Amino acid sequence: MQQNQRASITGIGSYVPGKVLTNYDLEKMVDTSDDWIIQRTGIRERRIVENGQITSDLATQASLRAMEDAGVSPKDLDMIITSTITPDHIFPSTSCYIQQKIGASRASAFDILAACAGFIYAMSIGQSFVNSGAMETVLVVGAECLSKITDYTDRSTCVLFGDGAGAVIIQKSSTKHEILSTSLAADGSQADILIMPGGGAKNPASLASVQQRNHYIQFKGKEVFKLAINNITNLIIETVTKNGLGLEDIDLIIPHQSNLRIIEATMEKLGLPMEKAFVNIDKYGNTSSASIPIAIDEARKEGRLSKGDIVMLVAFGGGLTWGSSVIRW
Ligand code: ACO
Would you say residue 118 lies in a domain? Predict the structure, then answer.
């Protein structure tokens, strides 16, 4: 292995459950309409797990695909890092279940929680372990069953979310997709505007917490909307500058898929055409940690990524947290 090789994405895989929940299905559940959802969010449908299917099942399928793509076997994995806000259990980690399901007995395994920015956070940990030489092969997963924490009686949140998983293998490589830099940020002063209030140490599960519907995602939509656009735009500008690049050098932005209007407003603020943004929110809604790796996989399959392209991953979510990563494809 050459000295100058850097942490790179050497394999990608994704998996979404087969069951489709359309806007028309939601019209029958809450007072909403296909028109409203498309106009305000860009979402047409989302995928939902079947009964009995759980986060580690989706993650396992995505991981096996990423490993096959990279040409690595389960025994090659040194570490598994999963980003999720819908783990199989609060503990043990979902990564441990994935380790067992794929047979990666040598790998250490743990989860991280940074909500919708979690995949970028997890990737940066994997990148650091690989660049330092401490690990050779790291599996990074973003997987969610958001349908399990979505309140299907609340029209302002239930139209947004879906289930899915994506995964990447990170290794040193001189031929695959080099991670040039990763930037992470957080603002805990806004922690309560995007939250699942029930189930933790502050508000453990009780009859009252269930009756108050505290075990579901709650947020202040308008505030999140504005903060997302401003923070993502600033971070993209900072990230290109840090890499000695200009905005015009970006070939494709792969943003977290939270709302088409957030993506459109960000591109407009940057002065970049929408053709430079990858969008698949119409099919999957917001899948939190899973949205970026699913989008990378689909962008590649659609021929949107060519060797040498500068690709910007960017995400924003609860915490608040946000992050970006620049890849030379
Ligand atoms: N169908 C029809 N009407 C609706 C619906 C619905 N599904 N939801 C809300 N409305 C109504 C509201 O009641 C309101 O009616 P009113 O004017 O009579 O009071 C009207 O539509 C406008 O509501 P707003 O909340 O102002 O709608 P807005 O244009 O802001 O869109 C949305 C709401 C889509 C939630 C937007 O604010 C948004 O996308 N915010 C970001 C949310 C986000 O991405 N959060 C990330 C969470 S993911 C994570 O980190 C786990």
Answer: yes
Residue 1 maps to a domain = no
The total of other beta-carbon atoms located within 10 Å of residue 90's CB is 9
Indicate the SS3 state at residue 230.
helix
The C-alpha atoms of residue 278 and residue 3 are separated, in whole angstroms, by 34
Domain stops at, among 122, 144, 175: 175
pTM of the predicted model as reported, rounded to 2 decimal places:
0.96
Give yes or no: 256 in active site: yes
CB 267 within 8 A of CB 277: yes
CA distance 175 to 133: 18
For 227, the token pair is 């903060």
- Structural domain for 36, as ranges: 6-175
Q: How far apart are the first and last CA of the chain?
A: 20
Q: Quick one: 146 and 229 in the same domain?
A: no
Active site residue 145: no
CA of 37 relative to ligand 1 center, distance in Å: 9
The tens digit of pLDDT for each residue in 178-199 reads 999 999 999 999 999 999 999 9
Ligand 1 pocket, mutate which of 152, 216, 225 (most atoms under 8 A from CB): 225
CATH number at residue 236: 3.40.47.10
